[in-house]
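Hi U.,

Before I forget, here's the chain from the pilot set. I'm dumping it here mostly so it's searchable later in email.
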Amino acid sequence: MGPAMRQLPTKEDILAWIRENPDQAGKREIARAFALKGADRAALKHVLRELEDEGAIERKRRRVRPAGHLPPVTMLIVDRADPDGDLYARPKDWESEDAPPPILYVHRPGDPALGPGDRILAKLKPVGEDGHLSYEARLIKKTGSGPRRMLGVFREDRKGGRVVPVDKRADREWQVPPGATGGARDGELVEAEAEETRRMGLPRARIVERVGDPSAPGQVSLIAIHQHGIPDAFPAEVLAEADVATLPGAEGRRDLREVPLVTIDPADARDHDDAVAALPDDDPANPGGHVVWVAIADVAALVPPSSALDREAQARGNSTYFPDRVAPMLPERLSADLCSLMAGVERPCMALRMVLAADGTKRSHHFVRGVMRSRADLTYEHAQAEFDGRGGPETAPLRAELSALHAAWWAADSARRRRQPLEFDLPERRVELAPDGTVTGIPIRVRLDAHRLIEEFMILANVCAAETLEVHRRQLLYRVHEEPDPERLDALRETLDGVGLSLPKGQVLRTGDLNRLLDGARETEAQELVHLQVLRAQTQAYYAPENRGHFGLALARYAHFTSPIRRYADLIVHRALIAALGLGEDGQTAEEATRLGAIGEAISKTERRSMEAERDTVDRYVAAYMAEREGAEFEGRVNGIGRFGLFVKLAETGADGLVPISSLGQEYFTHDPEAQTLTGERSGRVLALGMHARVRLVEATPVTGGLIFELLEASGVAPRSPKGRNPSRRGRVQKGRITLAKAGRKRRS
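Structure:
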């Protein structure tokens, strides 16, 4: 008889070893750990099978692990963020019927930003006991982004259906298999998520949410909210904090209740976050001077750092405004009530006192934390009527105060003209809605002196905030608008050369140089072209803790201070001022100061997101308004050129629409991207930016905001190509005179 067989380890011994060695838990490693050979290894296999049947362990690719446990290196999918902003993930492969254990993602400096749906390879560290097991995950590498999603209209067919995108920039539809329609009905607005990539045919998707009837009132803005991911509902924790918020008392604050402050806002304003007042300066050393007060809602007093309200405001970055609603940065209890500077009620404020000389030069300024009572909620139209001597009952009690305010602005405006900020005259569309949500008109918003008054005093206040924080060496977020990129300036110079204007090289570019260009082109056929090209040469503004100046405003330093109800950047600046000037215990924290770079980057993105959502919404409302006018003719200007056609902006509504190149007739057209022209190969006719155009509306699609035009006539100046291919000429194009090659022939572009 051979030597006695070694006693097998107990199930408890094996489980304990697997827990201590999760990365080595294969049958071979277990046998080696317990020195098992021959028949003992066969018995070990039997014990492991019993443990698996009992649910104590799981087998995965020849490895075993305790039930509910994960291997030390695992592929994860980022799942969600909790109210504190912490990211949680789930295992990519989880076959148990039980819920997977919680996995907290631990961000380290240098890790990329992650969002829901991103796939990562992570190293896991178990925390807690078996009964309450959870993990901490540290990134090894990001392996993929979150699944692509699309908002569109579901169209049912025999193969399940298709999702037609509402984004007019999307280039294809998605196929939905029969089992992935989510119960969506034909014509319903849905959100779809891409599934596997296919080499041939349409990409496949599944419906993840049914949004509703795309033609129902109010759906226009909801489409943008879904499409761009605009948060439109507050977490319960945030609403709970807003519900218990209370106004601070007047103790320790400057009493400004007798200062004749008023708010001046659009007639449909949903909140009032700034108020202004002006008085003649009685200082003999400043003859003809002015004292200007700018009071701003003290949001910092109601939104403490690191609170649920603060985290949600930072995540939103800013409010998003639509013609029929607002997606606010703060709950309505704060934005429309406690923080809003409503007439006749006391409100806490951050206030700025500026002293201006008679010529508008700022002599001094200082900030206080105060309590105020607005004298009136005025509209721009009310204020303008008073400035023009046509004031009504709304402004009669404030005639002297508004006169002083206008005089102070007149002085400040003279200083602004000396500074020469960039002077663009950009018409702004305003959508007018009936009570049932239908569009009644798309007028151009009239720009009044009352608008300019508020704008200039807000700019001065923003400059004062940046100056004060720099003096006190306090970290802040600047509003940065850098100089135009040199390559864009070279393209601008080539365009100007083609129309007989010039922008010299080799000298520091100033806004006054560009203003002179705009003035030189005014009342000429090249006006629209020059205006478009100067605008396109500009960079996009953003928030950053490093100061690079504000080129467009011709200012060395600039920081947003005046709208903390609707912009998180302004709340950051308020807290910095509170800390720098010793105005309370709720100012900027050291932790917040270290994160300004990341905060600035994040809120710059949310700002761009809101701008795109607001623009897309206006486009959809315009398309709905224009849908009843298909076949009508309109006047406009060419404001975009591409190889697929040209874009025309209508003079009446400011609406943009596409003239497809295929509609121009039977002729090849060559696209010159540098000169921004389309040239007919046979006729030599040139279509260029800035040309006057007469078009016919062929199609309006409200769900996408798309307009398709037919070009009837185009005239104006076509600039020379920078490569000299297209001679400068006057082009006049009439329907039928420019033709394309016959249908079916390959078009070169």
